[in-house]
């Protein structure tokens, strides 16, 4: 039926582990590991991925039409522009998304302790919104001969 035998394999970690072997590989089935390439003389039916190739395996009549490429380009460009707009909108501290979307979701989904821990983590990685308007002079305070623009 099936014969079990050690099979020499090459992986993406071949430089670190040059003698990697699969101890019991079925000789008549394909391997379930996606990052393992089995030597062609043992399993010739497995097609090796082509990393650098200047030719395509797709026939010319099966290529994508120009309208599909144009639609993909327009939708991709729109997605990038919308993502940049949302990124800029999120980092504005006066945006209403914080008051009407993010905070109600956090209050509903997360308990107060975890919400606080999340806020500390977000502040640690500087993902908090920034106030783009400079502070008023009435808020400034001098402490030990050093001027602080906002004591809060």
UniProtKB/TrEMBL annotation:
Gene3D superfamilies: Aldolase class I. It comes from the Eukaryota. This is 441_t:CDS:1.
């Amino acid at each position: 039926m099936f014969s079990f035998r050690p099979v020499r394999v090459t992986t993406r970690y071949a430089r670190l582990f040059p003698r990697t072997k699969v101890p019991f590989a079925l000789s008549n089935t394909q391997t379930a590991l996606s990052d393992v390439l089995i030597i062609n003389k043992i399993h010739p039916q497995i097609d090796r991925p082509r990393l650098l190739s200047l030719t395509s395996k797709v026939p010319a009549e099966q290529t994508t039409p120009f309208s599909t490429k144009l639609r993909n380009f327009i939708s991709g460009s729109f997605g990038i522009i919308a993502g940049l707009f949302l990124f800029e909108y999120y980092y504005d501290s006066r945006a209403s998304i914080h008051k009407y979307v993010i905070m109600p979701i956090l209050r509903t989904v997360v308990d107060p302790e975890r919400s606080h821990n999340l806020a500390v983590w977000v502040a640690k990685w500087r993902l908090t919104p920034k106030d783009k308007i400079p502070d008023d002079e009435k808020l400034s305070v001098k402490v030990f001969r050093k001027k602080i623009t906002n004591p809060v």
